[in-house]
């Protein structure tokens, strides 16, 4: 999982920016809407919805907004219908990039994603071109002073890997084990910050600083699209570039 903690740090920095909060609410609302429409509006019976609600709370989305989004998605009315699509492409230096979107207009989203890839020195590719370079995982972040103790609790709970150097600590699980590990950690007294499904690069590509800046710019432009829910890339961020972005 090397390098993923750097991505997480940059995400937190970006998420803390109030100027991005409105866009973040839109993305989280779409995630709630898709989850509720697919699995029903009861978070106790719909694990994906529960994760989406927890993400919404983590970014301080008002409870009324959450409830309204669920009601609209499950009310059987003419609410917006969002389709989930994954785009694959290459960035500067041959970096593999996955773009996960939730859209009500497939043609618009495809055109916007393709345009950004082209303008930022990348190339949109066909389905299956780069997806094999990533694997689905459960990702739990936890906070505590005793990282070794948290790691032991995580392994005992069934986690597949723990990164104690990350801040907060990152705990990885098999996708099906995410909820069970989260519950076990909480029962053991571990302070769980967030639990979510993630795509993790099997191996990372090292880029020089110039190419890394270009690749980060491409990722940022893609993430700024309203229809895009998540962007994952497989390059490691050089320390000097990480310091520039996260500092």
Would you write up a description of this structure?
By secondary structure, the chain is α+β, with helices and mostly antiparallel strands. The protein has 3 domains: 4-74, Integrase, N-terminal zinc-binding domain (Arc Repressor Mutant, subunit A); 89-98 and 111-127 and 204-242, Alpha-Beta Plaits, CATH 3.30.70.980; 133-201, Alpha-Beta Plaits, CATH 3.30.70. Helices cover 46% and strands 23% of the residues. The chain is built from 9 helices and 10 strands. The protein has helices at 4-15, 21-39, 47-58, 63-74, 106-119, 147-157, 178-187, 209-223, 239-246, and strands at residues 83-90, 96-103, 123-125, 134-143, 161-163, 169-173, 191-201, 205-206, 228-233, 235-236. The strands form 3 sheets. It has a 4-stranded antiparallel β-sheet. A 4-stranded antiparallel β-sheet has the order 5-6-4-7. A two-stranded parallel sheet has the order 8-10. A hairpin with a 5-residue loop joins strand 1 (83-90) and strand 2. Helix 2 (21-39) runs parallel beside helix 4. It is globular, with a radius of gyration of 18 Å.
